[in-house]
Write a structure and sequence with these properties.
The structure is a homodimer. Chain A is of the alpha+beta class. Chain A is built from twelve helices and six strands. Among the domains of chain A are: 1-36, no CATH class; 38-191, 3-Layer(aba) Sandwich (NADH Oxidase). In chain A, strands 1, 2, 3, 4 and 5 form a five-stranded antiparallel sheet that branches. In chain A, α3 (50-61) packs across α7. The longest helix of chain A has 24 residues, at 129-152. The model of chain A has no long low-confidence stretch (mean pLDDT 96). Chains A and B meet through α2, α3, β2, α6 and α7 of A and α1, α2, α3, β2 and α6 of B.
Chain lengths: 275, 275
């Protein structure tokens, strides 16, 4: 674990890009690792051995799963050419090439479909939109446990949502059978210290935590406060980004989805009819 | 943190319901907490103070989020009558009533929609199926960090997928505006030690971890091996469950979805057209 943080209050303040914070009610090595998360986009080539991968996956399997369905699988890609091909398909992100392994987390209803076929029984529930969310959520919970496990070992990670830009080609590259769909990629490796990846500040807690009922009041104020804090964060790195502009651009148009506007047809082709 | 485990190899073996396991390549308090996860379904009434809740949510906000959209919110419900009402709506699960707080994790595109409305710009990307997955995944990653944080503090948790059984009524109870949808509930509280919640074994790791490409061979054998291990686990508790039967029942029919077959129309009504 990192041992970088000077104090728990400092760690929480940094997470919010705030000048100061009250001392959190509790602190321990787990909370430290969680709060210290940063996305790493520059890697050293040092391998992630199979034995380490196995610990990440047993941590992933320890995550909760809806009705114990375990409706996910993960494909570990280390082959240089396959990794390069997936990098091309997923927004040409160079860190996929740099890092020793790309984990592709998949929604997996093929296992259940196989069991149903063997018994000759229907599996009508699997055809619904709901079951795709179940499988996507199962994959996400497992992947996030793997992230926490990796970071506890000093490894860096970054999710690759762009694995959904070209899902048909990704499915072909990974030989995913019907019923299996790529949800998210996860790069894992040793952080290149020259990147100096930072903890990115988040929205004020009041913006996301509601008590008893959803409180829409104040959202403009929270966004404005965050805009200022994040501009300060980016200015330190000579980046001129506005959070609000980025959100509005990212969700503003069909084109900004980079192919993902066709997700429904890609899911159907891969055996998810989404009734 | 728990300090229950006699050895890392024992913790990993228990996760797989195996008689023995090799020593994992690495171990630390974070890996211990992750592997020790169990769903808790009996709670003591001890409150979860606001200060503790704030740490759980700052841990949740520390999770990765797609393009830093932070497309989620959480509603903390402590009111006894509201909690009882939500318990009724979510499969009548008594642990929702017992525990001091139910966290309802939501997919939240309302924040982005509000910013777009203020600027008078379109937000066409938010209308797509893809953006619902982005928001569901964001909510899942945040929720899972909160689970890990809670368990590191000795608290128990259990997810409530049944919060999606009656999403219109849940949205009304929590005053969720258009663009906000309940993804999953999370009960948090002090475990009642009389329950003696156990670590539930998972599928053999070979069933979920694939190398380079998806390997469909062996899935029947892994499921059979798991069926035996899980039967052994359940037998200890005088429960006759078969994993395969449970999977086939859970996904076998429209009726088994308990209302969730109508998710598409509920999402549309709540401002998610899923283009």
């Amino acid at each position: 674990m990192t041992g970088i943080v000077s104090s728990p209050a400092r760690a929480v303040a940094r997470r919010y890009g705030a000048a100061e914070s009250v001392e959190p009610a509790a602190w321990n090595p787990v909370l430290e690792v969680l709060h210290e998360h940063r996305s790493v986009r520059r890697y050293r080539p040092d391998p992630v051995p199979d034995a380490v991968l196995r610990v990440l996956v047993s941590a992933a399997q320890s995550a909760p799963t809806s009705s114990n369905l375990q409706a996910w699988s993960v494909v570990a890609v280390r082959n240089t050419r396959r990794k390069a091909r997936l990098a091309e398909l997923a927004g040409d992100q160079d860190h996929i090439r740099q890092a020793p392994v790309l984990l592709v987390w998949t929604a997996d209803l093929a296992r259940a479909r196989g069991l149903a076929a063997e018994r000759g029984v229907p599996l009508d529930g699997a055809d619904y939109l709901e079951s795709s969310y179940v499988a996507f959520l199962d994959a996400a919970l497992a992947a996030q446990n793997a992230v926490v496990a990796a970071e506890s070992l000093g490894l860096g990670t970054v999710y690759i949502g762009a694995i959904r830009n070209n899902p048909a080609e990704v499915a072909a590259e990974l030989a995913l059978p019907p019923g299996v769909f790529p949800v998210v990629g996860l790069v894992v490796g040793t952080p290149d210290p020259t990147e100096d990846a930072r903890v990115k500040p988040r929205l004020p807690q009041e913006a996301v935590l509601h008590h008893e009922t959803y409180d829409a009041a104040g959202q403009t104020e929270y966004a404005t406060r965050y805009e200022t804090r994040l501009a300060h964060f980016y200015a330190d790195q000579n980046l001129p980004h506005s959070w609000i502009d980025r959100v509005l651009t990212r969700l503003g148009s069909t084109a900004a989805l980079k192919g993902r506007h066709r997700l429904r047809e890609h899911l159907a082709a891969q055996g998810f009819p989404l009734r």
